[in-house]
Amino acid sequence: MKITGAQVFEARGTFVNRDLYVDGSKLTDRDCGGEVLNAEGCYAIPGLTDIHFHGAVGHDFSDGDADGLAAIAEYELSRGVTQICPAGMTLLPEDLEKMCAVAAEHRKAEKPGASLCGIHLEGPFLSMAKKGAQNGDWIQRPDVALLRRLEEVSGGLVKLVSIAPEVEGAMDFIREVSGEVRISIAHTTADYDTAMAAFAAGASHVTHLFNAMPAFTHRAPGVVGAAFDTPDCRVELICDGIHIHPSVVRSVFKLFGADRVVLISDTMRAAGMADGDYSLGGQPVIKKGKYATLADGTLAGSVTDLMDCMRTAVSFGIPLADAVRAAAVNPARAIGIYSRCGSLECGKWANVVLLNKDLSIRNVIFKGEVIA
Fold this sequence. Notes:
Elements: E1 2-4, E2 7-10, E3 14-17, E4 20-23, E5 26-28, E6 36-38, E7 43-46, E8 48-50, E9 55-56, E10 59-60, H1 66-78, E11 81-84, E12 87-88, H2 93-109, E13 115-116, E14 119-121, H3 144-153, E15 158-163, H4 170-177, E16 182-185, H5 192-201, E17 205-206, H6 222-228, E18 234-238, H7 246-256, E19 261-264, E20 276-280, E21 283-288, E22 291-293, H8 306-315, H9 320-334, E23 352-355, E24 361-366, E25 369-370
Parallel strand pairs: 1-6, 2-7, 8-11, 11-13, 12-14, 14-15, 15-16, 16-17, 17-18, 18-19
Antiparallel strand pairs: 1-4, 2-3, 4-5, 7-23, 9-10, 20-21, 21-22, 23-24, 24-25
Helix pairs in contact: 2-3, 5-6, 8-9
């Protein structure tokens, strides 16, 4: 296939008018003949990677349901998200094992839909005081043996582990496993010094910056300030227009730079569904418009998919190239899959999204096949 006429995203953060060539499932630097796809007037961007979301279209990854995971993967692909690293909630160990086993089988079977490239364990090693929409009954101390068991059951799919570094045993856990998985600070009461100690121990990521953590203030910069002072730390940002004010989104891109921000959706099962009653981690959730809340009004994740989060960032004034970096390049780097996806370079998967000038999707190309 040859894709012609598009403004093609370059990993350095620019757009260039050039042709894209596809040989089988990979991008190449030569014309191999075959179908010509006219993309005049479009942007060509890499398929996005969501490293923090829970579900969509009535299903949740934490359900540990094979059919549900397949439905989620197909929905995400239709939205231009070609790689997924779904997040599990705070659950009982046996439920986490079931969830990981289903993910391993899904990956092995090579089912249709977005590629399952990892698992994000958002719990159970969190702070009760900042649990948010997590189920406090199942929060537990950091447990290396449990993590290793989940790594084994999942076939090595665990890529991210969220943790509150102030809880008992957390620092030892970070030191022991940070060479195996990426450790992310999350759902925490940690102050600046504690967060800096966690980064020194091996943490290198922050889960949904600002949410479920102390505020960033001039005398107590907390996790946000510690992340800023740690150059190799990436920070997640939910850009659904609900969780983070537009001014703060702009500030984060200025503070951290487009290379360190990872856009995430944090969607739950109500994404792609009508308003109504749903659940998250065993707790009832009400969806109304773009809001998903617990009964007490606590935000319970998002219902805005990653492509829409990227568009929202652009509507807030973030340059398109920076938003694409944050939704495609940086998340792929964060979970160690950038060698095969996340940019439109030769040898990588031919996962391409063609966007009209209004950023609506014209086509999704997945491993060299036009699927939408």
